[in-house]
Amino acid sequence: MTESSSKSANVVAECLRSWNPKAVAEVLEFRGETTIVVPRELLRATAEHCREAKLKYNLLTDATCVDRYPADPRFELNYHLVSISRKEKVRLRVWLGGDPVVDSLVPVWPGANWLEREIFDLFGIRFLGHPDLRRILLPDDWEGHPLRRDYPVEGYRDVPNTGELFKKSSTP
């Protein structure tokens, strides 16, 4: 961890704590990257503050999810933010257990639309206030969410027997 990245992490965390003392549950530094753990109920408000305040995190580069089954809380939701003018990055992390529902960040960063749809499709995380929450990669009739660790390796569907289609003919 470099001195400048540590200072940056402290500035972001202190700015968020001065805005709302409950907004920062934990600050993690690893290899020069800062992660701020935010309570589920404060995610959207914290994201709005990161975008509008002196922090100026004006770009959402990615949203990712990790299924930590059987650990509890099960899901780890990460939003990767960049302040272009300040040339800094930060990650907002939310832990989701039990009922995986969280506020959508589409009202804050419209680019979160497809990222959240992908997370919904593959992990089953529901985003409150999302303008178009439906599957984006898999067919609408797909059962389950294939990136969950408890998803069956062979899926829930019956696989048709294709052996007859590929049998070699005995006649030339």
Map the helices and strands.
Elements: H1 3-19, E1 26-30, E2 33-37, H2 43-52, E3 59-67, E4 75-83, E5 88-96, E6 101-103, H3 112-123, E7 126-128
Parallel strand pairs: 2-5, 6-7
Antiparallel strand pairs: 1-2, 3-4, 4-5
Quick take:
With 172 residues, the protein is of the alpha/beta class. Helices cover 23% and strands 25% of the residues.
CATH class of the domain at 3-100: Alpha Beta
Shape: elongated
Q: Helix and strand string, N-terminal first?
A: HEEHEEEEHE
Number of strands: 7
CATH superfamily of the domain at 3-100, please?
NADH:ubiquinone oxidoreductase Nqo5 subunit
Q: Which CATH architecture of the domain at 3-100?
A: 2-Layer Sandwich
Q: Helical segment tally? A: 3
Q: What is the name of the CATH topology of the domain at 3-100?
A: Beta Polymerase, domain 2
Low-confidence stretches: none
Mean pLDDT figure: 89
Helix content: 10-25%
The major sheet is characterized as:
5 strands, mixed
Order of neighbouring strands in the sheet with most strands: 1-2-5-4-3
Estimate what percentage of residues fall within beta strands: 25-35%
| Structural Rg | 21 Å
Structural class: alpha/beta
Distance between the termini: 70 Å
